[in-house]
Amino acid sequence: MARRVSRRVIQVAITLFGLLLLTFFIGRVMPIDPVLAIVGPDADHSTYQQVYHQLGFDKPLWAQFGLYLNTLLHGDLGNALLTGKPVVDDILRVFPATLELATLAIIIGTGLGIPLGVLAAAKRNSLADYVVRIISLAGYSTPIFWVGMMGLLVFYAWLGWVGGAGRVELSLDGQVTSRSGLLLVDSLLEGNWTVFRNALNHLILPASLLGFHSMAYISRMTRSFMLAQLSQEFIITARVKGLNEWQVLWQHAFRNILVQLLTVVALAYGSLLEGAVLIETVFSWPGFGSYLTGSLLLGDMNAVMGCVLVVGVIFVMLNLLSDLLYQVFDPRTKA
Question: Which residues are listed as membrane-spanning (predicted)?
Answer without folding.
Answer: 101-122, 134-159, 199-218, 257-283, 303-326
